[in-house]
TrEMBL record:
Provenance organism: Arabidopsis lyrata subsp. lyrata
SMART domains linked: HSF
Domain called HSF-type DNA-binding: residue spans: 59-83
Main location as per UniProt: nucleus
Stated family: Belongs to the HSF family. Class A subfamily.
This protein's GO CC annotations: nucleus
Keywords: DNA-binding, Nucleus, Phosphoprotein, Stress response, Transcription, Transcription regulation
BP term (GO), one: regulation of transcription by RNA polymerase II
This protein's name: AT-HSFA6A
Localisation per UniProt entry: Nucleus
PANTHER family the record matches: E2F_DP FAMILY WINGED-HELIX DNA-BINDING DOMAIN-CONTAINING PROTEIN-RELATED, HEAT SHOCK TRANSCRIPTION FACTOR
GO terms assigned for molecular function: DNA-binding transcription factor activity; RNA polymerase II cis-regulatory region sequence-specific DNA binding
Lineage: Eukaryota, Viridiplantae, Streptophyta, Embryophyta, Tracheophyta
Keyword Nucleus: yes
InterPro entries: HSF_DNA-bd (IPR000232), WH-like_DNA-bd_sf (IPR036388), WH_DNA-bd_sf (IPR036390)
Length: 288
């Protein structure tokens, strides 16, 4: 026995158009209101000729408000576009004269709250990433700042030490220069220098005689054992006599024996704190 099951009704599960669309379509479709609102010449859009009258009569009757701007925003929500800047003309590809069945294809756009929620979620994700990068950059900057501060302290300490060392050096140099200028003006000091210079020449002549008498091999051995005494002349005004610091020191000591207590500065550390070198002799050339 066969049973003929009823076929599902066509369009049973389909949802109808929104009430806003149906009411708007009925208002536009009514030919009695063409002086207020009507279809356009091409029947693919509608025109509100008198917005104030439309808001005063039809909006309260159909939508329970009289705000024309709210009606326009509602049209935008369903995808209607204002196609003429000089008049209130709106169009939607499924809002056509004589094609009421197409209204079901007009869908309401997502509400601003949904769009805003999605936008906020995406924005929050981006902000979290930016905050993470900013924290990482801040940490790196803090580490670099600590390093620079330590380096700055080291540089300050180094500069302070250099300043102290420079001050000590300047004091020693000034004391030594004053001492030399004072001693060089004394005949006894120059006589001591000349005497040591002549003694050095005599010693070299004696060594030369010894070398000549013992031959070349002994000359090399003798030269290695006792190197030739060094000397450096300052100028002709002193008879070509001005030796290195050791001779100057000895000459000053000899002069001290002649002058009495004038060399008390030596006990204060001039010679102990400042060793005369070849550079000091060169410095003396500029002050003599």
């Amino acid at each position: 026995m066969e049973y003929n099951l009823p076929l599902p009704l066509e369009g049973l599960k389909e949802t109808g158009p929104a009430a806003f669309l149906t009411k708007t379509y009925n208002i536009v479709e009514d030919s009695c209101t063409n002086n207020i609102v009507s279809w356009s010449r091409d029947n693919n859009s509608f025109i509100v000729w008198e917005p104030e009258t439309f808001a005063l009569i039809f909006l309260p009757r159909c939508f329970k408000h009289n705000n024309f701007s709210s009606f326009v925003r509602q049209l935008n929500t369903y995808g209607f576009k204002k196609i003429d800047t000089e008049r209130w003309e709106f169009a939607n590809e499924y809002f056509l004269k004589g094609e009421r069945h197409l209204l079901k294809n007009i869908k309401r756009r997502k509400t601003s709250s949904q769009t805003q929620t999605q936008s906020l979620e995406g924005g929050r994700f981006r902000l979290e990433g930016e905050i993470h990068e900013l924290r990482r950059d801040r940490l790196a900057l803090e580490v670099e700042l600590v390093r620079l501060r330590r380096k700055q302290e080291s540089v300050k300490t180094y500069l302070h030490l250099m300043e102290e060392k420079l001050k000590v050096t300047e004091v020693k140099q000034e004391m030594m220069i004053n001492f030399l200028l004072k001693k060089i003006k004394k005949p006894s000091f120059l006589q001591s220098l000349r005497k040591r210079k002549l003694q050095g020449i005599k010693n070299r002549e004696q060594r030369q005689e010894v070398i000549s008498s013992h031959g070349v091999e002994d000359h090399e051995t003798f030269a290695k054992a006792e190197p030739e005494e060094c000397g450096d002349d300052i100028g002709d005004q002193f008879g070509g006599v001005f030796s290195y610091g050791d001779e100057l020191h000895i000459a000053s000591m000899e002069d001290q024996g002649q002058e009495g207590d004038e060399m008390e500065m030596d006990s204060e550390g001039i010679w102990k704190g400042f060793v005369l070198s070849e550079e000091m002799c060169d410095l003396g050339k500029h002050f003599i």
